């Protein structure tokens, strides 16, 4: 069923080499003698569907290779990772682990919410970006703080109020809703608070432009003042020292609070004005670009101007469809899966490729220039975020590259009929 769907979604020009040869007889392929053997015609589908059939016992077997498992094994993980247990034979060499489920991250539970993170220590390949999944109950605060990395966020559920003041004393206060973004440049102080309108508080994804970033290593208001002599604090504010009798003796980090009044009543008038480029962006209201097999929308520094080091593409891939073969010229990609079942093969040059599977709540990491695709291998929509450590979204489409190259050049490499090459789409299809 799954393969039928997949092929139904593919135009002739992208079907397998076998199908193309059978279907197109109108022009002759180059009669070159290959200097290397042809690639195998055998398909290497993901075994996701068969591993998840009722009563199925996943086994590491593909064709005549492999064998069954005699010893103990974590079957639920096999069912989620069929392309790790029985990889396509096109996988070769070694690419460091590129999958991290937030489920495996230590969770920091506090009164008012929780936070769990992934950084380079969890997934060593992810050197440029790190992520945090955080929950704040209604009224709860992620306390006033700052850090050395820039912070980008996508609201997953509920709503929050964000506050900030920049280096010129200009303030910013906004409410954000599911699918909206915020961004605080490195060193700019801010706070987050759960609202109580669309849900009890909020949950969000945070991404930082440094793979070493740790959410447990931020500059917190309370931690700082707990480490300054009291008379210095009193002198700083020119107040009596007794007024500081109840400041916390250690950090709060996340703590409960009252739901704030409506935004208009909560704003603090600022003689220095508001920040010129808003720290939040109503990405949920941006219109998606429909595509053959899904849709996409992008927020980068052309629309969300302050976000100069982290940008996003929100991608939907329909069942049977895939995000086409492509790469990003110089940008590391940190992806977060919101829905569905996906497979991705990362190609690292030098005959090195490895396939991974992703579910909702998982992170993928693809180093700059690595070729890849994201295939929907389930029965439901795949929705995910492609997040990059850069300012402008860029990708190179394999099909568009070949469509815009003299066809005899492409034919000399791939032995496809010229009319097939000439039918390749000169526009990016993105999701097919
Ligand atoms: C796909 O898997 C089979 C084993 O089932 C293998 O023999 C074949 O060579 C693989 N196909 C490709 C294109 O590598
Ligand atoms: C949130 O709203 C609900 C329903 O209006 C209410 O019962 C609850 O007390 C509110 N929570 C907070 C923390 O204010
Ligand atoms: C996907 O849909 C097909 C056809 O309806 C069904 O046979 C299969 O069991 C489904 N797979 C999963 C994992 O739900
Ligand atoms: C080529 O791609 C564009 C952009 O995605 C799409 O609108 C168009 O229908 C495609 N053309 C063909 C012939 O598939």
From TrEMBL:
SUPFAM superfamilies registered for this protein in UniProt: RmlC-like cupins (SSF51182)
Signal peptide: 1-15
Cofactor-binding details, from the entry: Binds 2 manganese ions per subunit.
Residues annotated as binding Mn(2+) 2: 326, 328, 333, 372
Origin species: Calocera viscosa (strain TUFC12733)
Positions with biased composition (Low complexity): 26-35
Alphabetic keyword roster: Manganese, Metal-binding, Signal
Keyword Signal: yes
MF GO annotations: metal ion binding
Keyword Signal: yes
PANTHER family: OXALATE-BINDING PROTEIN (PTHR35848), SLL1358 PROTEIN (PTHR35848:SF9)
One GO biological process term: oxalate metabolic process
Cofactor(s) the record lists: Mn(2+)
Catalytic residues in the record: 386
Cupin type-1 domain ranges (all copies): 102-245, 281-422
Positions of region (Disordered): 26-88
Pfam families referenced in this protein's UniProt entry, alphabetically: Cupin_1 (PF00190)
Record-listed Mn(2+) 1 binding positions: 145, 147, 151, 190
Protein name: Putative oxalate decarboxylase/oxidase
């Amino acid at each position: 069923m799954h393969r039928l769907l997949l092929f139904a979604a593919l135009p002739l020009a992208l079907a397998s080499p076998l199908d193309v040869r059978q279907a197109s007889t109108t022009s002759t392929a180059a009669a070159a003698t290959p200097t290397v053997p042809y690639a195998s015609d055998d398909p290497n589908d993901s075994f996701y569907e068969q591993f998840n059939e009722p009563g199925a016992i996943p086994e590491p077997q593909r064709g005549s290779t492999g064998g069954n498992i005699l010893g103990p094994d974590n079957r639920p993980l096999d069912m989620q990772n069929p392309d790790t247990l029985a990889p396509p034979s096109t996988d070769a060499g070694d690419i460091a682990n590129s999958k991290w489920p937030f489920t495996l991250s230590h969770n920091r539970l506090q009164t008012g919410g929780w936070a769990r993170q992934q950084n380079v220590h969890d997934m060593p390949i992810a050197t440029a970006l790190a992520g945090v999944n955080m929950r704040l109950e209604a009224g709860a605060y992620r306390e006033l703080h700052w850090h050395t990395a820039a912070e980008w966020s996508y609201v997953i559920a509920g709503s929050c109020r964000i506050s900030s003041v920049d280096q010129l004393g200009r303030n910013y206060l906004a409410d954000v809703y599911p699918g909206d973004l915020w961004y605080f440049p490195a060193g700019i102080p801010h706070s987050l608070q759960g609202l109580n309108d669309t849900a009890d508080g909020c949950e969000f994804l945070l991404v930082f432009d440094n793979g070493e970033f740790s959410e447990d290593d931020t500059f917190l208001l309370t931690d700082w003042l707990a480490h300054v002599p009291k008379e210095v604090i009193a002198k700083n504010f020119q107040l009596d020292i007794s007024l500081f009798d109840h400041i916390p003796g250690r950090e709060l980090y996340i703590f409960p609070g009252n739901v704030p009044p409506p935004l208009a009543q909560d704003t603090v008038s600022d003689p220095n004005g508001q920040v010129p480029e808003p720290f939040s962006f109503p990405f949920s209201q941006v219109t998606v670009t429909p595509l053959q097999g899904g849709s996409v929308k992008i927020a980068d520094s052309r629309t969300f101007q302050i976000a100069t080091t982290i940008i996003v593409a929100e991608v939907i891939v329909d069942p049977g469809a895939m995000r086409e073969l492509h790469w990003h010229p110089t940008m590391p990609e940190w992806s977060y899966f919101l829905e569905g079942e996906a497979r991705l093969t990362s190609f690292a040059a030098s005959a090195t490729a490895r396939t991974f599977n992703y579910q909702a709540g998982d992170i993928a990491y693809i180093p700059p220039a690595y070729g890849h695709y994201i295939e929907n291998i389930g029965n439901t929509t795949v929705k995910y975020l492609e997040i990059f450590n850069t300012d402008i979204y860029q990708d190179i489409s394999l099909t568009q590259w070949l469509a815009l190259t003299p066809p005899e050049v492409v034919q000399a490499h791939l032995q496809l009929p010229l009319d097939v090459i000439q039918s390749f789409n000169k526009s990016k299809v993105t999701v097919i």
